[in-house]
Amino acid sequence: MENRKIHIVSLDVPFPPDYGGMMDVFYRIKSLNELGFDIILHSFTYGRGEPKELEKYCSEVHFYKRTKSVSSLFSKRPFIVETRKSTELLERLKSDNHPILLEGLHCCWFLEQLKNSGRLIFVRTHNIEHDYYKALGESSKGLKKIFFQSEAKKLRSYEATLRFASALLAIQNEDLDHFQKLNKSTYLLPASFPNLELVEEKEIQEYYLFHGNLSVQEVHDSALWLLQEVVPNLGKIQFKIAGKNPSQSLIEAAKSSSIELIINPNQQEMSELILKAKLHVLPTTQETGLKLKLLLALQCVGKTIVNSKQLAGNNLHEFCLVANSGEEFIAIIKEEFAKPIAFEERKIAIETFKKRMNIHDQLRNVLQKLDII
Fold it and tell me: Which CATH class for the 201-356 domain?
């Protein structure tokens, strides 16, 4: 490909990269730009604005309103797909013959429309979506439960569309096995994420941290579990929760637990909170997908405590401490807080982790396999 032009269709606006999915998209855009690609970015927008920052990395940036309506709930397609249709975007894709990267099953209406066009069309799979929505349904009630259960069934059926893609890019090993059954041209491309700078030992502060997009049900449930099952048994050890848009119930639970809840921190504030924590405590209620917050925590001097579900499908076990019950989390937190930080040992572990997760090299290797670099 002489000029290395590529279209990217993003399910959401990838700036700021303040939650996992958009962090993966944004830092992949940044890496592709550094590799010499001329990027034509198409983003669906529903509340995140039209940031000029993206123009630093893309020659063209186009925004499209995500159209949500009650009728979309009754479509045969999943709601996350049906609400991301755009004839305007489709016409722009048809205006040339450059490769297309669709970010998520969410954007595969365009794969349906272009499946017989002879185009190179790649799909980044962020999750096994029907498993993710099934898990959301199991942890929800009322109308939310009905919606998530319906969406899971539609997503399971709609996933067959992925057979039309030139290749799929799976985020972790467990997903790789699943998607290879749908499309033999499936490659592992680990999540893209920022490279955090190591802080000095003296900058570490005496608190443990849980962070994430608190408006997501799974993240909310994990935070609430910590407040109910772990925090009350840790005495005066300081606990902080940081993230976007917590529910009123979580805000009230945090108040009654006398912990510090940092609501909607900006990127710099969140980075400092992550880098300076003595411990990262990151349980999850779902095994689906690779959690980007884990990749951030593992670049820090403070150790990371997770449950087994957080490690499903990835090869990061050696970098984490594992606990599965409230009692196990309490015991490990108390033990680690009583220890001095083994700074040199942590530096070696972080360096090993970063070498294994060198996203720039892994992206280049996949692009070579796809024969577009």
Answer: alpha beta
